[in-house]
Structures are given as C-alpha cells and as structure tokens.
C-alpha cells in the first residue's frame, strides 16, 4: 500500500471519526509503516467493516491494531485444528511411498508440526489406533499455537523478519 493509499484509508476513517487532533503527516507515516505490505482494497474493506460494526457507546478513532484485526479476519483461511488434522491424516495414509510428496502438499503449520517427511512416513507405519488417538490429541493440542506463531511472523515487515531470522541463526 502506498502512502497516498494510506492517506485515503485515514480519510475514510476520519469521515466516521472526525475528532482526530493529530498531525496528518505523522499519522500517514505511522499507519503506512504498519500497512505498507498490505493490499489497499483489503485494508479499505477492513476499515469499512470496523466502522460499520463499531457499536461502542463513545466511539473514537481506531488504532491500527483494530483495523489490522479486521484485515486478519478478512484473510483467515478457516483451517480449524480439526480440518488441519484431517489433511494431515490423509497425508499419513498416503505416505507409504510418497512421504516427501505428501509432506510438501501440507500447509506450512502442519509441516512445522511434523518436522519432516520422515515423521510422516513413520506415522504411516504406526498403528492407526495410536495415530487416531494419541497423535491426533497431540496435534489438536499444539497446532493452534504453531498457527498463531506463524501468523504473527507473517505479519512482520520483511526487514524485521529477516533480522529475526539472522538473529536466530547466530544464536544457534
């Protein structure tokens, strides 16, 4: 999103929340830092959704995090832990001779949980009763945290993400 588009978003919000007493240039720069990597149409819709649903008794100009929450709501994939388990279980069942291929088809959060194609193959050779009870329970208990961490990292600007990856590699 460009700075001009950021200014348009702030103008839309200002139409609904006119009591803003901040320097417009500072606001544009601050909001642009947060939304620079986002699609204008998505942020615009998120701002409109926020204003339309805002039923606070004393509404005031939203902070960027409130709009970002709407953006995240609009872009959610809808993969519940149970839906993700069904995808993983199908991959486990098909992993006999194609574990690497099945692993690569999985969502990134599922790949992270498994750790590698060999784990998928090992689960394919495990008793189905254990996979359907113990492994499933472990998956459902931990996949939400993995997804949250992954989504938080995806929201970081590229330069921050690269800096964090560099810091993690140095610490290893």
From TrEMBL:
The keyword Nucleotide-binding applies. GO terms for molecular function: helicase activity. Keywords: ATP-binding, Helicase, Hydrolase, Nucleotide-binding. Gene3D superfamilies: Replisome organizer (g39p helicase loader/inhibitor protein). This is Replicative helicase loader/inhibitor. It comes from Hominibacterium faecale.
């Amino acid at each position: 999103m460009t700075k001009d588009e950021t200014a348009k978003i702030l103008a839309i919000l200002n139409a609904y929340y006119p009591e803003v007493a901040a320097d417009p240039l500072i606001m544009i720069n601050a909001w642009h830092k947060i939304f620079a990597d986002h699609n204008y149409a998505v942020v615009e819709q998120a701002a409109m959704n926020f204003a339309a649903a805002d039923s606070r008794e004393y509404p005031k100009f939203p902070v960027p995090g409130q709009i970002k929450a709407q953006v995240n709501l609009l872009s959610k994939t809808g993969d519940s832990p149970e839906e993700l388990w069904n995808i993983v279980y199908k991959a486990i069942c098909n992993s006999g001779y194609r574990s690497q291929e099945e692993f690569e088809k999985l969502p990134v959060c599922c790949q992270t949980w498994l750790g590698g194609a060999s784990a998928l193959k090992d689960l394919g050779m495990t008793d189905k009763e254990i996979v359907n009870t113990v492994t499933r329970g472990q998956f459902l208990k931990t996949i939400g945290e993995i997804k949250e961490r992954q989504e938080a990292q995806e929201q970081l600007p590229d330069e921050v993400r690269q800096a964090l990856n560099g810091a993690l590699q140095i610490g290893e």
